[in-house]
């Protein structure tokens, strides 16, 4: 149990502030927290109970609960039994799985988890690379500090996509529901785009920090090969997230945006209660199955 709720307040835009509260859910139990929020507003803004009523205040607040994305290191996606890939493989290897609604629902949830978890894991991997670069003593050979991490990204991302794409024949069958097959393909396209974008980001990191021309050229060549491989893959499968030179690429931008935001499964909209006007309402949720 957390001893205290972690809090953060930031400016969302010109008209909104965002308050984040990070708290722990207990497995198998209902977890309740009560938070009293006090907002102090300068008097010269003229905000009073007459100019901004309690009803307006609660009407303007939007509350969300987000379940934290589970984390795995990159190699665990293909080796750990708790990986979404392992769960997908186990389901499709079971007898008569296409006729069991619960299996289909769990598969779609596993697709969503795979995309969200991989994004989180790659981000953590890149944070570690950046940390080693930032903390390197003057005169250090950056190449030696980050070489194993770069190699791991290149090899493990390939293993992950290879393992996922090997499942294609299991879903490309007449008795597989169309929404399930569509979810599989959207996740496939999302993974490809995710890996390509991070390969480009790593390319830029090398360009900035690696001084050795030979090492820089070698890593940039391999990253470029990975980018080109993902582009070729998406083209061969008719996916539309392809950048076209000398075009406005409006379709690509729209498609990429949709793919990045197609897994909102970890958000729950929670209405607020204005009862007695004393506190924001309590959030009492059981731990959702399969979300750990």
Secondary structure: elements and pairs:
Elements: E1 6-11, E2 17-22, E3 30-33, H1 54-60, E4 64-66, H2 76-79, H3 84-92, H4 101-134, H5 142-165, H6 168-171, H7 178-209, H8 213-236, H9 250-260, E5 267-269, E6 283-286
Antiparallel strand pairs: 1-2, 3-6, 4-5
Helix pairs in contact: 3-4, 4-5, 4-7, 5-7, 7-8
Describe this structure as you would to a colleague.
The structure is a single chain. With 292 residues, the protein is mostly helical. The chain has 2 domains: 6-68 and 266-286, no CATH class; 76-260. It has 9 helices and 6 strands. The protein has helices at 54-60, 76-79, 84-92, 101-134, 142-165, 168-171, 178-209, 213-236, 250-260, and strands at 6-11, 17-22, 30-33, 64-66, 267-269, 283-286. Strands 1-2 form a two-stranded antiparallel sheet. A two-stranded antiparallel ribbon has the order 3-6. A hairpin with a 5-residue loop joins β1 (6-11) and β2 (17-22). α7 packs antiparallel against α8 (213-236). The two termini are 15 Å apart.
């Amino acid at each position: 149990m957390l001893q205290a709720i972690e809090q953060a307040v930031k400016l969302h835009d010109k008209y909104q502030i965002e308050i984040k509260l990070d708290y722990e859910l207990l497995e198998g139990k209902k977890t309740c927290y009560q938070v009293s929020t006090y907002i102090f507003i300068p008097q010269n803004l003229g905000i009073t109970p007459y100019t901004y009523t309690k009803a307006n205040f609660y009407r303007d607040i939007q509350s969300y609960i987000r379940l934290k994305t589970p984390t795995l290191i990159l190699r665990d996606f293909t080796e750990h039994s708790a990986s979404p890939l392992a769960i997908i493989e186990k389901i499709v290897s079971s007898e008569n799985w296409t006729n069991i609604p619960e299996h289909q629902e769990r598969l779609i949830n596993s697709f969503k988890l795979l995309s969200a978890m991989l994004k989180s894991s790659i981000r953590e991997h890149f944070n570690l690379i950046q940390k080693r670069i930032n903390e390197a003593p003057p005169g250090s050979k950056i190449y030696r500090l980050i070489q194993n991490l770069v190699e791991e990204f290149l090899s493990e991302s390939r293993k992950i996509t290879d393992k996922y794409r090997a499942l294609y024949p299991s879903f490309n069958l007449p008795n597989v529901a169309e929404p399930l097959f569509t979810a599989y393909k959207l996740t496939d396209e999302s993974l490809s785009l995710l890996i390509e974008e991070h390969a480009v980001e790593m390319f830029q990191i090398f360009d900035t920090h690696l001084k050795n021309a030979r090492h820089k050229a070698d890593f940039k060549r391999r990253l470029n090969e990975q980018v080109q491989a993902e582009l070729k893959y998406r083209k061969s499968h008719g996916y539309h997230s392809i950048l076209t030179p000398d075009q406005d690429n409006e379709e690509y931008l729209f498609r990429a945006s949709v793919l990045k935001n197609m897994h909102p499964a970890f958000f729950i909209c929670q209405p607020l209660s204005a009862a007695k006007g004393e506190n924001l309402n309590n959030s009492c949720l059981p731990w959702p199955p399969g979300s750990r």
